[in-house]
């Protein structure tokens, strides 16, 4: 029966699934093979190496392959050499550390899903060879640094979980991308020299980004605090943002846009390691803010009434559920309403 199947899905098990899949040796080339995890919170199921080395390379007519949820740490170097017709590949929630170079021969690939590959640190340098790739999801891959310019993927329509490491990529590269969805991280912002360069990222046009992380690295202080604030001004996102994280900002004062009540959907805000800042913005004006985390703000000596915003308007922090201050050694006074 299985030998006649063109499209197959199966529930992954705890025995490596070789016995379940070995009959595909005799198959007349299935087009679809999808692993289904019926235990969505359990991602510790191993896949037999015999499946990876002996079964999958024989399925040369596959158009769609999902190995979602398997505890795969390593894929064979030649995994995809014979799977050149593949259009959909899902490796989400696996334990892979490196995507093999052979993925770059998948010229027909349109969708590549790597979400929640938390051990993934490296993807091939020749990813631009995926000339038909339209959807790339690298969300929740905190160890991965983007080694490619997404702008080189000419057919890319959707990029989820993008990371921009400035120095390798530029703000201008970021500005050319209008297909970003979900989370966006911009790293090494100390490499941005002024507001003009920051504006090249066209952050206000990223309408589908709802989680944004802005990160400055290194321990150096800024030459000009006003320039640093102007750079942050230029990084103002579209008002659709839901979660915002700012780490290592080098200015002495935050931009006014952080407290703009037009950010109606902003529910979570984290400010950390902004050691030169001596004041907090008027965050009490944010109408939907529920979670506020303020950490390692060594320049803060007091929290003033400014923190609450305009007292003539609505009750400050009207939706706040969780407020955390941590590692603020110079903080001495809090002006409570």
- Please trace the helix and strand order, writing H or E for each element: EHEHEEEEEHEHEHEEEEEE
Question: How many structural domains in the coordinates?
Answer: 1
Would you tell me which CATH topology applies?
A: Leucine-rich repeat, LRR (right-handed beta-alpha superhelix)
In angstroms, what separates the terminal alpha carbons? 74 Å
Q: Taking all residues together, what is the mean pLDDT? A: 87
Q: Order of strands in the sheet with the most strands?
A: 1-2-3-4-5-6-7-8-9-10-11-12-14
Percentage of residues in DSSP E strands: 15-25%
Secondary-structure class? mainly beta
Number of strands: 15
* CATH architecture assignment: Alpha-Beta Horseshoe
Helix-residue proportion: under 10%
| Cα gyration radius (Å) | 24 Å
Q: Low-confidence spans: pLDDT under 50, at least 5 residues? A: none
CATH class: Alpha Beta
- Count of helical regions: 5
| Bulk shape | elongated
Quick one: biggest sheet? 13 strands, parallel
Protein name: Putative ovule protein
Domain R13L1/DRL21-like LRR repeat region: 171-297
Pfam families: LRR_R13L1-DRL21
InterPro entries: LRR_dom_sf (IPR032675), LRR_R13L1-DRL21 (IPR056789)
Plain-language structure description:
Pfam families: LRR_R13L1-DRL21 (PF25019). This is Putative ovule protein. Residues 171-297 form the R13L1/DRL21-like LRR repeat region domain. With 337 residues, the chain is mainly β. It has one domain: Leucine-rich repeat, LRR (right-handed beta-alpha superhelix) (Alpha-Beta Horseshoe), CATH 3.80.10. Helix content is 9%, strand content 20%. It contains 5 helices and 15 strands. The chain has helices spanning 18-21, 49-55, 171-175, 195-199, 225-234, and strands spanning 7-11, 32-36, 64-66, 88-90, 111-113, 135-137, 158-165, 180-187, 209-215, 243-247, 268-272, 291-295, 302-303, 322-326, 333-334. The strands form 2 sheets. A 13-stranded parallel β-sheet has the order 1-2-3-4-5-6-7-8-9-10-11-12-14, with no helix packed on it. Strands 13-15 form a two-stranded parallel ribbon. It is elongated. The mean pLDDT is 87.
């Amino acid at each position: 029966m299985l030998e006649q199947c063109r499209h197959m899905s199966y529930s992954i098990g705890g025995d490596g699934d070789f016995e379940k899949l070995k009959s595909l040796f005799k198959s007349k080339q299935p087009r679809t093979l999808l692993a289904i995890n019926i235990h969505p919170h359990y991602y510790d199921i191993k896949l037999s190496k015999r499946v990876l080395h002996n079964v999958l390379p024989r399925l040369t007519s596959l158009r769609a392959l999902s190995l979602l949820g398997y505890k795969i740490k390593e894929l064979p170097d030649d995994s995809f050499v014979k799977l050149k017709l593949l259009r959909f590949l899902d490796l989400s929630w696996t334990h892979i550390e490196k995507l093999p170079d052979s993925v770059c021969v998948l010229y027909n690939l349109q969708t590549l899903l790597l979400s929640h590959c938390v051990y993934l640190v490296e993807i091939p340098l020749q990813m631009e060879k995926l000339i038909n790739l339209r959807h790339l999801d690298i969300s929740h891959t905190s160890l991965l640094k983007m080694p490619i310019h997404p702008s080189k993927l000419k057919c890319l329509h959707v990029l989820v979980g993008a990371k921009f490491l400035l120095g390798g990529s530029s703000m201008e590269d970021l500005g050319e991308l209008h297909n970003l969805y979900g989370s966006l991280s911009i790293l090494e912002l100390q490499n941005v020299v002024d507001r003009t360069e920051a504006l090249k990222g066209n952050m206000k046009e990223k309408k589908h980004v709802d989680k944004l992380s802005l990160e400055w690295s290194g321990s150096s202080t800024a030459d000009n605090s006003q320039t640093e604030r102007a750079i942050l001004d230029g990084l103002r996102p579209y008002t659709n943002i839901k979660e915002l994280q700012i780490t290592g900002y080098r200015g002495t004062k935050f931009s006014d846009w952080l407290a703009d009540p037009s950010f109606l959907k902003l529910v979570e805000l984290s400010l950390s390691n902004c050691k030169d800042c001596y004041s907090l913005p008027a965050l009490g004006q944010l109408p939907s803010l529920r979670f506020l985390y303020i950490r390692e703000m060594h320049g803060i000596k007091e929290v003033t009434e400014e923190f609450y915003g305009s007292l003539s308007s609505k009750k400050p922090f009207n939706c706040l559920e969780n407020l955390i201050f941590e590692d603020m050694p110079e903080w001495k006074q809090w002006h409570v309403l």
